[in-house]
Each structure stands twice: as structure tokens, then as C-alpha cells.
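#help-structures

NK: newbie question. if I give both the sequence and a SMILES, will the prediction place the ligand too? trying with zinc ion
OV: yes, paste both and it writes out the complex. here, I ran yours:
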Amino acid sequence: MSATLQRCDSCGASLFPFRLFCPACGHSDFVEHDVDDAVLEEATALADGTVLATVRCATGTRLIARILGGEASPGSRVTLTNEPNADGGTVAYVPFNREVKY
Ligand SMILES: [Zn+2]
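OV: that's the protein plus ligand as C-alpha cells.
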């Protein structure tokens, strides 16, 4: 399992959500890269039971994810996925859709 991020082809900045221009250097050439896991920094449980979390990838990129399949505490490593129905224990779901037009 993994989540897809965007990497600037010029400066290497790792980005999510996807951008039209790199906020670090202004270039517009990107490649996609997959990240397997991240460290949970904060989590918030909503009234309906949904748990949203801020997770930090090894590149330093922070993502907002939904925790599925269990509980995770700050400092723990969570597996990232773009699959909303992923199996395999506690995962951090990051919505991603290539069909979205920018
Ligand atoms: Zn850049």
C-alpha cells in the first residue's frame, strides 16, 4: 500500500495536494512518487466517529488522512493508502483521484 504524491522535477519538493506550479521554485514539471508510510502527528475524532489525522512523510510533507481499521496514536507509524476500502489493519487513507481537473 502507498499514497501518491507529486515531486517537483526541478527542486525535488514533495507536494500534496497536487499543484500546477511548485511553491518552492515556481517550476511546473512534476513526477509522481509513492510513499508507503508516515508518522502520525495529530488526530481528531469527529462526532460521527471519523478520525482525521495529520501525518508527516519522510520527505517532511504533511498530509491530512482518515484513519481506518483501528486506532493510531501520535508518534506511531501508519501505512498510507489511496484505497478507501483498504484491508490490513490500521491505515491512513489519503483520497487521490487522477480524474480531477485542475
Ligand atoms: Zn520546485
